[in-house]
Specification:
Blueprint (H helix, E strand, L loop, with lengths): L3 H9 L13 H8 L4 E6 L4 H10 E9 L14 H4 L3 E4 L7 H13 L11 E3 L4 H10 L5 E3 L2
Parallel strand pairs: 1-2, 2-3, 4-5
Helix pairs in contact: 2-3
Length: about 150
């Protein structure tokens, strides 16, 4: 069975292939599909394990971008080989956006149908289900839950 995060990615991604991490080793799958790794990997879940996977997926000399925000007390363990391979790791808190400029621009793109946001929602929950929604998010089981009031 495909995880809800993988189903969301399959609906929303502009990629030709979606790798379902629950079906096997995602790093090996990506390396096999790309003959050695990708130029840019974007980690958006916020788990230390997925951050390490993103770094492992990039080719030497390329960059992994960490967009997801890991829990405050967590640590990221990266192999020393990233130095010899000249791999880059770039953190992007809140997407490193400029709110006054970027939010109106992104809202406009959404309203024009040029970016897909609805497809990124894996669950719509009520306020009474918020604790369960946070737990699914912490486990990495959901791509994104939205509270419906």
């Amino acid at each position: 069975m495909m995880s809800s995060a993988a189903r969301c990615a399959r609906r929303a991604a502009h990629a030709l292939v979606v790798v379902d991490a629950s079906a096997g080793d995602p790093v090996e799958a990506v390396r096999t599909l790309t003959s050695g790794g990708v130029d840019h990997a974007f980690e958006a879940v916020g788990l230390p394990v997925t951050a390490a996977q993103a770094v492992a997926m990039v080719r030497p000399g390329r960059t992994a971008y960490l967009v997801g925000v890991p829990p405050e007390a967590s640590t990221l363990e990266l192999p020393a080989s990233i130095v010899r391979q000249a791999k880059g790791v770039q953190g992007l808190f809140m997407g490193s956006n400029r709110f006054k400029h970027d939010i109106p621009m992104l809202a406009g793109l959404y309203l024009q149908g040029r970016i897909k946001l609805d497809e990124l929602i894996s669950h719509r929950i009520t306020l009474d289900e918020v604790n369960e929604g946070y737990e699914r998010m912490r486990e990495g089981a959901d791509a994104r839950s939205v509270v419906i009031f």
